[in-house]
Design goal:
Helices cover 40% and strands 19% of the residues. It has 282 residues and is an alpha/beta fold. The strands form three sheets. A six-stranded parallel sheet has the order 6-11-10-9-8-7. Helix 9 links the parallel strand 10 (239-243) and strand 11 (261-263). 37% of the residues are buried.
């Protein structure tokens, strides 16, 4: 099955795989050379855990770069729920190639499926509300777009991709700019079309951010009572985002306050990779 990846992820995928193979294979797979070059094999990849599948395009790219003659057959779709011991994909081709590419291919799927699975679990907890769960920039260097893609496969949403596509004005920016209001004014002047988000740590800052007409206001470390009060004060003027100190234990309560967004670093870090296994079959 073919997957249409969003740009610029499609452009980055080949380079991500190239680096992974260079790191793992180096000057050559010593152990694979024990097998005659002409030996053909078939392999199956299963999951030992329930979760959400993600990463098929990376598997295809691993073997495209390593050996284009390897046939990859994906049996589940991106974002599909999978059960323990379910068959995910099959590989056919030179035994050397299958074994050399195994770890790089599985590493990508294990990580991305782990992210997608975490996101699905969290999204399910707040499905009865209108809140959107957002990821953050707390991603593995070089794999940000891949992880953010996995977030969407799991039913959550992307915050800004990097420092270039939206403003997020925090306390240090405010201090350096002179004031919250001045920072927002300068942001509008420099890039009128970019979303302007301001992080606030008090009701005084919240009121200033509202007066400055920020598009999104991040409530940093507000407790439940403060968050409810902020929603009431805002009255729909700006989008409100709750952030800081939020985990699966208090996520539902925060979502039920009426905020528009909740940002969670845990969607892309502290991830438990999905446990996968590849076996050669006759």
């Amino acid at each position: 099955m073919s997957v249409e990846l969003p740009l610029p992820l499609a452009d980055q995928l080949a380079e991500q795989v190239r680096l992974a193979l260079a790191e793992d294979v180096g000057s050559g797979d010593l152990t694979a050379q024990l097998i005659p070059a002409t030996t053909q094999a078939r392999a199956q990849v299963i999951t030992r855990q329930a979760g959400v599948f993600c990463g098929g395009p990376w598997v295809e790219e691993v073997f495209r770069q390593l050996d284009p003659q390897v046939r990859v057959t994906l049996l589940v779709a991106e974002g599909e729920q999978v059960a323990p011991n379910q068959l995910l994909l099959t590989l056919e081709g030179a035994a050397r190639s299958l074994l050399t590419g195994e770890r790089s291919a599985l590493n990508f799927v294990q990580l991305l499926a782990g992210v997608a699975s975490r996101c699905q679990q969290y999204a399910a907890l707040v499905a009865h509300t209108s809140v959107k769960l957002l990821d953050t920039r707390k991603t593995l260097p070089g794999l940000r777009l891949a992880q953010k893609y996995a977030v969407t496969c799991g039913g959550c949403f992307n915050h800004r991709i990097g420092l270039y596509d939206a403003y997020l004005i925090k306390e240090n920016h405010i201090a350096a700019a002179g004031s919250l209001t001045q920072a927002v004014i300068e942001a509008r002047r420099l890039a009128p079309g970019k979303p302007v988000e301001v992080e606030v740590e008090s009701f005084a800052e919240l009121e200033e951010a509202l007066a400055a007409a920020a598009d999104i206001i991040m409530l940093d470390e507000f407790d439940l009572e403060q968050t409810r009060a902020a929603v009431a004060l805002n009255a729909g003027q700006a989008k409100l985002e709750a952030s800081g100190g939020i985990d699966r234990h208090n996520l539902v309560a925060v979502a039920e306050t009426g905020v528009d967004y909740i940002s969670l670093g845990t969607l892309t870090k502290d991830i438990h990779s999905l446990d996968l296994s590849m076996r050669l079959v006759h």
